[in-house]
């Protein structure tokens, strides 16, 4: 009652307060749209420039490199990609590498995350924090030890050499662990009453409930592996075992760079990623929101 009386005794807001607040809201919306427009242009313009270079001749490119669209359209860059490279072999290698590694990564990461989130064992927190610390170690630091391991195993120029060393991700373990922690423990207890063991609970209860997180992790890792340049380049000396991004280095040499072919190959390589992201966008956003990562 005292609070209501004190509020009723407050003087009314001045007449200029309402228009000023509406003006501030309009300014805020204009600033928000301005920032979004700048961010969109910063994302789209390089992609448009890449497409423009793919359709330009060397003379057209060197005359004005900043121009987005060519004066004279040419498909010589795309012709070079399909004729100078074993394109379909490279595409198969890329699909096998990115797809196979991602599937294996989802299995291993989900098992690790399940153990860290749903089971109890000594040193559990120590293991979890150690995994998080590995996120601060750049992949380049581990490149030489991984290469030597693959070399001594005789896995150079093989799919297992490409896939196995990249089949675990600390980021994936963290994401799935955060999701698994939020699943009610009562589901595990009810399953144990029915005689289910840990693996059955993981396979029949946890994984079906974690489909949004698995889908988002699949998109993140598949895109990263599809665009992976360094590891396939280091591990494969044969062109027939390279992926599309690493094979594009063949268009760069001491004699010069075929910019049209390089950009055409990059555009072809990015097209499946754009399609995959558009198809899985809903699961990606749901998984990111569910894991609490902003």
Automatic annotation (TrEMBL):
Q: What domain of life does the UniProt record list for this protein's source?
A: Bacteria
| TM region(s), chain numbering | 30-55, 95-117, 126-151, 163-180, 201-226, 260-280
* Lipid bilayer topology: Multi-pass membrane protein
What is the recorded name of this protein?
Carbohydrate ABC transporter permease
Cite the InterPro entries for this sequence. Answer: MetI-like (IPR000515), MetI-like_sf (IPR035906)
Q: Enumerate the UniProt keywords alphabetically.
A: Cell membrane, Membrane, Transmembrane, Transmembrane helix, Transport
Q: What does the sequence similarity comment in the record state about its family?
A: Belongs to the binding-protein-dependent transport system permease family.
Q: Which residues form a coiled coil?
A: none
Q: Where in the cell is it found?
A: Cell membrane
Lineage here is: Bacteria, Bacillati, Actinomycetota, Actinomycetes, Catenulisporales
Show the Pfam families listed in the entry.
BPD_transp_1
PROSITE patterns, from UniProt?
ABC_TM1
Tell me the organism. Answer: Catenulispora pinistramenti
| Ranges of residues in domain ABC transmembrane type-1 | 91-280
Q: Which PANTHER family match?
A: ABC TRANSPORTER PERMEASE PROTEIN MG189-RELATED, ABC TRANSPORTER PERMEASE PROTEIN MG189-RELATED-RELATED
């Amino acid at each position: 009652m005292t609070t209501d009386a004190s509020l009723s005794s407050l003087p009314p807001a001045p007449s200029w307060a309402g228009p000023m607040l509406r003006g501030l809201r309009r300014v805020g919306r204009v600033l928000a749209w301005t920032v979004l427009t700048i961010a969109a242009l910063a994302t789209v313009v390089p992609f448009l420039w890449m497409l423009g270079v793919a359709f330009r001749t060397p003379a057209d490119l060197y005359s004005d490199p900043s121009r987005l669209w060519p004066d004279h359209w040419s498909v010589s860059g795309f012709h070079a990609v399909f004729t100078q490279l074993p394109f379909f072999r490279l595409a198969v290698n890329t699909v096998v590498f990115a797809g196979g590694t991602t599937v294996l990564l989802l299995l291993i990461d989900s098992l690790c995350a399940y153990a860290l989130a749903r089971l109890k064992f000594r040193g559990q927190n120590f293991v979890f924090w150690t995994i998080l610390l590995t996120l601060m170690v750049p992949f380049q630091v581990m490149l030489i030890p991984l290469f030597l391991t693959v070399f001594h195993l005789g896995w150079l120029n093989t799919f297992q050499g490409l896939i196995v060393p990249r089949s675990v991700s600390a980021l994936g373990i963290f994401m799935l662990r955060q999701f698994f922690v939020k699943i009610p423990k009562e589901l595990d207890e009810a399953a144990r009453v029915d005689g289910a063991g840990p693996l059955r609970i993981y396979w029949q209860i946890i994984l079906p409930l974690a489909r949004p997180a698995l889908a988002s992790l699949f998109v993140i890792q598949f895109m990263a592996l599809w665009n992976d340049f360094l590891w396939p380049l280091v591990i494969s000396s044969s062109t027939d075992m390279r992926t599309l991004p690493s094979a594009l280095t063949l268009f760069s040499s001491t004699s010069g760079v075929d910019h049209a072919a390089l950009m055409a190959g990059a555009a072809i390589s990015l097209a499946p990623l754009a399609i995959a992201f558009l198809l899985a966008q809903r699961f990606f956003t749901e998984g990111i929101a569910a894991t609490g990562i902003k």
